[in-house]
Amino acid sequence: MTRTSAAPGGDLATLDPAHDVKIGIHAVTKEFTTRKGTTTALTELNIDIPTGQFFMIVGPSGCGKTTLLRILAELEEPTAGEVIISRSSEGRPHNSMIFQGDSIFPWMTVWDNAAYGLTMRGVSKSEIAETVGHYLDRTGLTKFKDAYPHQLSGGMRQRVSIARAFANDPDILLMDEPFSALDEQNKTLLQGELLRIWDETRKTVVFITHSVDEAVTLGDRIMVMTAHPGSAKAFIDVPFERPRDVLELRHRPEYGEIVYSIWEQLRDEVTRSQKTAPSTGRRK
User: Facing residues of 38 across strands?
Assistant: First the structure.
């Protein structure tokens, strides 16, 4: 079990294994101090994410979405509160993170990029060949395995990031708007591919997006965040069964209804964020 904590000695709840909670976020507050002053990115955030849930986060710019993801990745520490992540295996990496922009190594081939995490862990060559081969096949990259990133489109480079993340077999997957820079056609294709791969593994995923459509398409549960400082405004359970077909799902009348209801929750926060955006600190 991994614990990221502030305020030692605080009376904070611990994870109850009987409830199969993978990520427990308890009263988390995060402040940044710069030469211009102190800004609060997150305030009193409480979330329990069950094992295997595809958890989506939507919120206005500046509400602390990326800050929360960085805390989960142990790249930041909360100023107050506690994050507890239940580890399933000591031999498995804690997390893999997929970013908005290119995050693969430009000097490595597609194959070597996808195999990087396994290679660093000293996994056998036969296991690497089997695992990487599987995920390159699932992402449509097998025939490009010897190509370098500069030879690939933006969508294909994100496919490499997805293959690398799943091949590394982490406890949790953290995704920070991975498809936001892509055109709609590539975005739709990659959403479908991600869903197919996730259906095989049922990894616990925390996924940030600005797109309500994307949140409903991919997620099991959606957190709507308030404008800065970020906190949880609402949690919405997505009622659609799995597996999902992206295009078929969007033709269903109830799809439009849930998208509209989430936008209703989000609209006032977006408007408020435009009037009160802070000038200091990391706040995405």
Answer: 33
3-state secondary structure of 34: strand
- Per-residue pLDDT of 22-80, as tens digits, reads 999 999 999 998 888 899 999 999 999 999 999 999 999 889 999 999 999 999 999 99
**What CATH number did the domain enclosing 187 receive?**
3.40.50.300
Residue 260's CB: how many other CB atoms inside 10 A? 10
Q: How many domains does the chain have?
A: 2
Contact 217, 191 (CB under 8 A): yes
DSSP secondary structure letter of residue 182: S
Of 20, 2, 152, 30, whose CA–CA distance to 92 is shortest? 2
Kindly provide the b/e burial profile for residues 161-176, where b requires at least 16 CB atoms within 10 angstroms of the residue's own CB: bbbbbbbbbbbbbbbb
What pTM was estimated for this model as a whole?
Answer: 0.88
Tell me the β-bridge partners of 96.
173
- From residue 7, alpha-carbon distances to 30, 33, 82, 85, 104 in Å are 12, 17, 8, 18, 36
Shared domain for 189 and 265, answered yes or no, is yes
Residue 68 amino acid letter: L
Q: Specify whether 90 is located in the same domain as 158.
A: no
Residue 281 lies in a domain: no
CA gap 212, 258 in Å, rounded: 9
